[in-house]
Amino acid sequence: MKVSEIIDQLGLKVISGEKGLDRGISGAYVSDLLSDVMGNAREGQIWITLQVHQNVMAIASLKDLAAVILVKDLQANENTIHHSDEEQIPILSTSLSTYEITGKLYALLNKQ
Amino acid sequence: MMRRFRADLHLHTVLSPCADLAMSPDQLLATAKRKELDIIAITDHNSTLNCKVVREIAADFGIVVLNGCEVNSQEDVHALCLFEDDHTRDEFQKFIDSYLPQIPNKPDYYGYQPVVDRDNQIITEIPWYLGNGLPVSLEEIADFTHYLNGLFIPAHIDRPINSLFSQLGFLPKELKIDGMQLTRYADEKHIRKLYDIHSDISLIKASA
To answer: Which fold has domain B7-205?
Structure first.
């Protein structure tokens, strides 16, 4: 499944990094500790977090993640958006909590 | 000849929910004296309100006391913010007051948060839990600290939680720091290598 395909199905907003919407999704990882994501996330995963700091995109790029979903309508910092465009890794946004969006994404990815 | 000073720049008073009620200003200074400290900083969680009383009685102990606090940022990173004079300390307190989430403290669970006078009488208790993160980024806190001529030092960077490295993975490019603090038993060489900390960055050790 591609990033672009989950956007409609989960009602996500695309904040930045549109050029990366064709990226394929291998799974997902949920964590707000960036050190944990650095150590444990795997290539192609969607990362669900509430952290909006620019280091989020540096780590998404380092781990070659498919996209980042920010929960609860949190606004990414300006620098974070800039890095997302530059690295072509989309930032997606939802009004849902981590619990809700994770449940929906899990169901969607496991339906395949 | 160069004179050496012993300093502990991360200390909590009774005001911090994590601290013991015995951490009264006079007890704290007496302990600092016993440990032969020349300089200490008062760094309660998200508050500078007990700095004043400690500074007032510090002269009796021959110890220099710096104004400070341990701020918790939006990313849940703890950082020491130190201020030279009382005016800049008070300006920083206003900054904290404008951001601290108004979530009531639960003394039974977290501990009491009293501001005290020199006789250890409680002047007031802070009603909002002081351990919460402020909804402000670490960079904004650092910039405001520097605007007030203060020092900005990420706290206990070797801890697995609430540290710059646990929360943010690595030192952000735009963050201006004046040093980093290690916990008491940390191995400086190991930590420098582990997090690739440049030799230009000073590391200090502190008790908290």
So the answer is: TIM Barrel (3.20.20)
| Model confidence band, residue B19 (pLDDT cutoffs 50, 70, 90) | confident
- Kindly report, residue by residue over B89-126, the tens digit of the pLDDT: 999 999 999 999 999 999 988 899 999 999 999 999 99
Question: Which residue type, as a one-letter code, is found at position A28?
Answer: A
CB contact under 8 A, B170 and A55: yes
| Domain boundary assignment for chain B | 7-205
- Residue keyed to tokens 């050190």: A35
- What is the token pair recorded at B85? 């004079």
Whole-prediction pTM:
0.92
DSSP B113: -
> Residue A74's closest chain B neighbor by CA?
B135
Please give the CATH architecture assigned to the domain spanning A3-111.
Answer: 3-Layer(aba) Sandwich (3.40)
Distance of CA B7 to the CA centre of its chain: 13
Residue to test with chain A: of B73, B75, B76, most A Cβ within 10 A = B75
Radius of gyration of chain B from Cα atoms?
Answer: 16
Say what angle helices B86-99 and B138-147 make with each other, to 10 degrees: 150
